[in-house]
Design brief:
2 domains; 3 strands; DNA-binding
Chain lengths: 111, 111
DNA sequence: ATATTATATAATTATATACTGATATGTTTA
DNA sequence: TAAACATATCAGTATATAATTATATAATAT
């Protein structure tokens, strides 16, 4: 049962990370860093088609990264938690570190 | 050109997150939280087949989440940066928050 | 009531991804 | 030198995923 619990925890976590693992969804999340946006604003900011943006927003809601609030005919999406923003920032730091490692590696190999 | 730079940054970030977005790779990363491991140790800890573990390790190296160091016939893998561990921890916190939101939502809807 | 706007959903298609089994390559041991 | 061990790679297959087009649904304006 413990193995099952661990397995489920890992599956849930993988699902959460899958939310971040597509360029379209990432661009939506980064658009929301500046605050809540409706679908048309997200479409304009990301250059995605409206059905494509809607599909990805459904996926992001499903894995818990965004929440939706309807105001009349507009649906406003926002990041579900400040730590979603933290994950994006941390990823940038890891990427910078990885890029630095690759650069240093390149210099050493030229010696 | 700025648009291209942003697009590339987003693609790289998506690729980094793709490293986390599969249960097999996640279980490998979590195994490495305790320190460097060789392939056989990882295979034992994760119950993956050896070629499968090897494929995923190649993917994790490729997106910069782990580094490899050969010592004789053994290749030792480790997390490339402490922030990789931080990403895993932060994801747990987001998941806990999401789960709490879902639980509260369930209670409200039973009213 | 109808038209317009905003958004979600369905069906289809193309592409990407994950696993297995077989096998290749490199290191150590006998 | 050959066998054993550790690991990487390849080919094939099955499944998952992303985008598009068409369309449905809901809210607002006329």
């Amino acid at each position: 049962m413990l193995l099952t619990a661990q397995t489920n925890a890992i599956s849930l976590k993988a699902k959460l990370f899958r939310g971040f693992s597509d360029p379209s969804r990432l661009s939506i999340l980064e658009c929301l860093l500046d605050g809540p946006r409706n679908v048309s604003e997200i479409v304009a900011a990301t250059d995605l088609s409206q059905p494509n943006a809607s599909n990805h927003l459904a996926c992001l809601r499903d894995c818990g990264l965004v929440t939706a609030a309807q105001e009349g005919r507009y649906v406003y999406y926002r990041l579900s938690d400040d730590r979603v923003a933290n994950l994006l920032t941390l990823a940038d730091e890891v990427l910078a570190e990885v890029a630095r490692g690759v650069y240093e590696c390149t210099r050493v190999s030229q010696t």
